[in-house]
Amino acid sequence: SQGSLLYLDALGAAFPRALAHRGTALLHWSPGCSLAPAGWALPSLYRPPAPAGWALPSLYCTPAPVGALPSRAAALRLQLLFALGQRALHVLEAGLAAELHDALATLRAEWPQLAQELALGRLRPQPGLPEGVQSQLQALLTPDAARAAEIRAECARGFEGIVRRLWPQLQVVVVGSAHGAERLYCDALRQADCQGLPFYCPFYQVAGALIGVNLWPEEPMPQFLLCPDWAFCEFLPCPAEEEPQTLLLDELWEGREYVLVVTAQPGEYRCRTGEVLRVTGFHKQCPVVEPVRRENQKLSVRGESIPEEQFCQSLCRALGMWPGARLVDYVCAESSLLGDSSGPCAPHYEVFVELQGLRDLSEGQRYKLDQCLQEDFPVYKSFRFKGSIGPLHLYLVGSGAFARLREALGSPVPMPRVLREEQLLRFIQDSIIS
């Protein structure tokens, strides 16, 4: 509850209309749970009625039970539909930036059908929507031909900056996670669909524990104030010392990096989370940190240990040499996971990318990524020269492949970009277009 109040206070101070009645649309899939993304205790549309004479305001215009549907695609589509019906939105909230991206991809693909449903005030049957829930939602939907016409007109113009055109009073996009694997989606949304809107990530959660809050909604990069009484946190210096000793909150130094160790509640096990944090400053003697990377997300077919975030930097540099291409998402895996299907050559990287603006790559363009990796990582270049690591294999996958992969995973947490499960790669292979 303390975290919820701090979040609401920071949000309301930075964006005065953000706490308006039914002014927030929620796009989040949480099967078996109807809470908001980070579990904060905010009033919802389906909250039980208040006692006589009381009025409980609702921040959300999207029905809470929709997020608990067994189908991720159905949940996000229905939440998008109810959000489209509310023109006077001030906040667009998503548990993950990937969920917002996938909902807007549904808008691109199905805007005529969505507009038709709003115009008629009638939900069409769809997979993953039980009949009982459909009748419950149908009672909340009223015909709105004027709003449907507005949606048709804006979508027909294209989708650059579509979010602000559909919701002209929108002030901020709130996401449950904006670092690590989700940063790529935040950057892509800022450049295209959500042009001109600030992104606010209010909470920092690790290993199931809420440990920090972002009090600066208007800052472009999220920074989190570590709250001393929310969880017991210890810190290991990074890079590691010969005989490392854990440090407490009052022993941290500005500008240094630390690995986070968390004990969520008294009596629980200590957990080395693998999260590397950088101390950016202090707020009333408490450290303010930004997440930097995860220790265990590395590629290593011969012991070269390329961290995920540095591989992503090399990929983005190669992308700059592919005219017109915009990166939607990617995954990378070691070839051993594919077995015989990866070919007879030496161990190598298997990279799957989804792009906008480019439907094929020449062999020369594909080689640019391997070239960038050799320039950025001398150890990788040495292994490539010796032949102990083979040239990477780069594949383009079709539009929406990663959205289908998230549906197949059946988990509302961010998807790792360094995959370890062979069946996930098989799923991606089914989507390869070149």
Automatic annotation (TrEMBL):
<feature type="domain" description="GH3 C-terminal">
    <location>
        <begin position="317"/>
        <end position="408"/>
    </location>
</feature>
<dbReference type="Pfam" id="PF23571">
    <property type="entry name" value="GH3_M"/>
</dbReference>
<feature type="domain" description="GH3 middle">
    <location>
        <begin position="225"/>
        <end position="294"/>
    </location>
</feature>
<dbReference type="InterPro" id="IPR004993">
    <property type="entry name" value="GH3"/>
</dbReference>
<dbReference type="GO" id="GO:0016881">
    <property type="term" value="F:acid-amino acid ligase activity"/>
</dbReference>
<dbReference type="GO" id="GO:0005737">
    <property type="term" value="C:cytoplasm"/>
</dbReference>
<dbReference type="InterPro" id="IPR055378">
    <property type="entry name" value="GH3_C"/>
</dbReference>
<protein>
    <submittedName>
        <fullName>GHDC protein</fullName>
    </submittedName>
</protein>
<dbReference type="Pfam" id="PF23572">
    <property type="entry name" value="GH3_C"/>
</dbReference>
<dbReference type="Pfam" id="PF03321">
    <property type="entry name" value="GH3"/>
</dbReference>
<dbReference type="InterPro" id="IPR055377">
    <property type="entry name" value="GH3_M"/>
</dbReference>
